[in-house]
């Protein structure tokens, strides 16, 4: 099945919009394997959508190249690229029925009428919308419309499917449902998927690999587990999930990152497991969240942190009491301190970066 | 709590009807003016055309058989058709450009449309008179490139040219309002699906702009049918349009019932056309709602 996937290679792509100083996409290189589910994750303005629309051909490149199966597609007009695109606002043609919308790309390719009918039927089956073939888009719910858009974008077997925040306009329940459908489509079609989102949960659940975008650059590329367990930068650590950050042991501009669920809490004064790093903290509050307790911590140098205790594991202190916090060094990530790096290059910049640091270890 | 709740709903139920009565009072002045100055004279004209000097459809039969009126009516319809078509072809790219350019340039284009709109109709028609007259700008321009004796004044062509200019705003404005509500991302979608930019325009943009085309065309067509000033000033009695003939009948021949009959025919033709257009454009009318909603 994975044979139908196509590899995409992005080489040193930069995009500078007219009149702007800072590039929207800054020297990005990335290799996407055939059949891979790749997610571009980042906050708004990080360049992820611009990168996607350059692959689609809607936005032109300033420099660099984008290759599909080794062929440079950057000089190709968008309608010659044979890529599928799904837009956040569905972009269904309001004057055409669902079936006509799905038939549209096939008509553009000059396919025979009866073949089109068969293909449209197949695509409708794929997204479970057989009954809606003759309806107009406005007669469908948002989730159904996005499923039609998905069917329309894959019916002509494009070389890859590009999705720009496709779930952004839907409510949470529909979003979860459509996430599962997209994952299923990826398994069934074996197509290369590129998915743009600012939602870390979407990225973590769906992707084979995630590229984290920030200020036009890729901060880190890796599997969801790699990114979560071993963030390469403070930005990745803070954008994906919650994290406690402490200044590094050698105080040379590095930061130690530990996930809340990796922190162990011990009654004050009790011994900690051998080999663990440890700190003293005051419990500020304990919030019950159903399957776990969220424990607010206040460290000696006035920084805040969070620990997570699974339901059934007692919290060894009441709010206001002191605890010993420990974790195994395997569960920490040491990343460069962006504040220190910024201080070296431009003293005034980046001063607003949260400094949740805690000396010692 | 329950009592408060029910009284609140009762209040809500009562309010719309009270509001409707109030709205009725607000409509009273306009209704009175329309009844006195429009419906009554209109009814009187139609009544006269059937009753004076004797009861019957004599005036209408005469119109059919006098050999002139039907020719004039057909000429008027043809002129209106030509004017709407020409206006459409000039206005469509103009309105499209208005949706594409930067806001400042859009303001300038809008001003270009509205400037003649704000100028007096008489001023504009006299301007065309000067342009089209013998030894006027147009004749000299054409003789400069080798075509002698092009005098538009007194011809249906001359009237048509001027009418196209006068009618342009009535075509540009509905087109622009319909086009500016089209989501341009639909074109990106069409292109990503394999349509060339030209095909994307034809298969997506054009159908979505049809509501504007229909309303612009019917507006221009119907206004042209009854237009008086331009044909009276720039046309000729030999090739007159229906409004000129009505005017001649009423003010020169004092044939009120005959003029009334012609006017009634024009009114009926207009209403039939309006009805036909509303019928044809029903699916597109629903469509414009979609475009607005999107």
UniProtKB/TrEMBL annotation, chain A:
InterPro entries the record matches = AAA+_ATPase (IPR003593), ABC_SmlMolc_Importer (IPR050093), ABC_transporter-like_ATP-bd (IPR003439), ABC_transporter-like_CS (IPR017871), Mo/tungstate-bd_C_term_dom (IPR008995), P-loop_NTPase (IPR027417), Transp-assoc_OB_typ2 (IPR013611)
Q: Name one GO molecular function term.
A: ATP binding
Listed A to Z, the keywords are: ATP-binding, Nucleotide-binding, Transport
Q: Tell me yes or no: is Nucleotide-binding among this UniProt entry's keywords.
A: yes
Fetch the SMART domains from UniProt. Answer: AAA
Please report the organism this UniProt entry assigns to the protein: Streptomyces endocoffeicus
Q: Which PANTHER family match?
A: SPERMIDINE/PUTRESCINE IMPORT ATP-BINDING PROTEIN POTA, SPERMIDINE_PUTRESCINE IMPORT ATP-BINDING PROTEIN POTA
Spell out the protein name for this chain: ABC transporter ATP-binding protein
Biased composition of type Polar residues is found at 347-361
Which residue ranges are recorded for the region named Disordered?
A: 337-361
Residue span(s) of domain ABC transporter: 8-240
From TrEMBL, chain B:
> What keywords sit in the KW lines?
Cell membrane, Membrane, Transmembrane, Transmembrane helix, Transport
Q: Do you know which Gene3D superfamilies this protein is assigned to? A: MetI-like (1.10.3720.10)
> What is the membrane topology listed in the Swiss-Prot or TrEMBL record?
Multi-pass membrane protein
Q: Which residues form the ABC transmembrane type-1 domain?
A: 73-277
Among PANTHER family, the record links this protein to: ABC TRANSPORTER PERMEASE PROTEIN (PTHR42929:SF5), INNER MEMBRANE ABC TRANSPORTER PERMEASE PROTEIN YDCU-RELATED-RELATED (PTHR42929)
> What is the similarity comment for this entry?
Belongs to the binding-protein-dependent transport system permease family. CysTW subfamily.
Q: What is this protein called?
A: ABC transporter permease
Organism this protein belongs to: Streptomyces endocoffeicus
